[in-house]
Amino acid sequence: MSNPGELEDLLRRLAPQVLAALTRHYGNFEAAEDAVQEALLAAATQWPGSGVPDRPTGWLITVASRRMTDQLRSELASRQREEKLASRTPPEELLAPAADSERLTGEDDTLTLLMLCCHPSLTPPSQIALTLRAVGGLTTAEIARAFLVPEATMAQRISRAKGRIKASGAQFHLLPEDERADRMRSVLHALYLVFNEGYTATSGAHLQRGELTGEAIRLTRTLRRLLPDDGEVAGLLALMLLTDARRLARTRPDGSLIPHAEQDRGRWNRESINEGITLITDALARTPLGPYQLQAAIAAVHAEAERAEDTDWPQIVGLYQLLERLAPNPMVTLNHAVAVAMVDGPRAGLALLEPLDCDDRLARHHRLHAVRAHLLEMAGDHQAARSGYQAAARLTTSLPEQRYLRGRAARLTTDPG
Amino acid sequence: MKYLLLIYSNPESWEHPIFLRTPEFLAMPPDERAELTRQAEELHREITESGEFVVGTALADPVTAKTIRIREGVPMATDGPYLEAKEQLAGYFVIDCDSPERAAEIAARFPDARFAAVEVRPIMDMSGQEM
Q1: Distance to chain B for A97, nearest Cα, Å
Q2: Which of A6, A101, A378, B121 is most buried when burial is the number of CB atoms within 10 A of its CB?
């Protein structure tokens, strides 16, 4: 394979299948996951020279199995007999479903793995780390770089996550129907968080982080292939595509943030937008409504406006009303207030913010102050708007956001209006 | 979210782990001292194993500190820390955890929080959401 990117794609695609085959065979997810990582590494070093084997999956399974038997043999001498047996099993047999298990295809395996990695006993950061490694086929070093932590920290996070799954007694099989909806929410949330980590990265120094958006989209696409009738999967994929479409337009070359309304829409990625709109239109027409679909629908309305002033705000208000009913949360209220201000004027938006002041946690959140400042600015109360922007700037822990907010405040200081 | 935890202490002699040298700790009955030491070790193990621990460093005695000031273009080095206080910065930890509440919980479990203080400072992020 001539292109290193192509090889990487191939390995990442095969990773969950190989891991699933090993886990099902040995029943030891923890060790299988390590062995697969080593096999992927071996392939990444050897294949560029030797060429991709005829049956790459079989190759990876053989190498990973050997790793695993070596490891198990050295760790657990008492189980030696069993492992010898396993090491003689040809790779093709490992790939086939065991006679007593339900029939599983390689694709169901990916879903099973995703659900295992997003086990409720793990915190979201651990779910993310494990998902990227076990399902995404990324190395610990790559994940650590993307999350700006030392490799040792990330390695601990992953090994703790695997330990927790083992301790929970979770098995490698597709969850019963009644547990799937809850787990799917965790899976989608983890993928959303991966996307967001990548999307909010602002500067060249954080390119590694930016690749997370691509990885999140890739994994969500896979999920969509497995569950074509799940409207929320479609909604999340559409939301990612519609958001990612703005990536080039959202920052200046120096990394400073450009607010949504001021972005050069010519730099929005039309291809992603069209794909996102098609996806969300189809999902809304034929599946039950959900929060990701609504957020994607809102993003689609924004994307459809040629200029910021062409935005169909009444439609956006309607969608936020639905979203507040379906999945109420203070961040939704903030965005809803902005939309209401665009339709009924800033005072109407400000009125929606009032109840949020009673929430202690939110009162210390920069977004509430930033949104209020924005609406006060619209209302012409520049002095109050300025203090709002300043309060928000003090509370944010993001350098680019702070710079943006200080800039807004400064503009109002020099502007006599 | 990443947080810097600043460990402040007022020990009788400068030696790490610093809380072992504070008068308050030394005045405790032996079983309480042992229990506190165990809790501190447990905390370090916990945040390391959970993948929340990013980096941590013990600092040398403040008598070895130099503070540099440039006034009217002239650099001046004075011996000692920037702030003259009873409690001095003894070390720091960088942790990466889920919420500000978790960061505060971890800070509260450092024995130093009982004797002097542990300050929790969020670390600024290069990432940002456009508004």
Answers
A1: 34
A2: A378
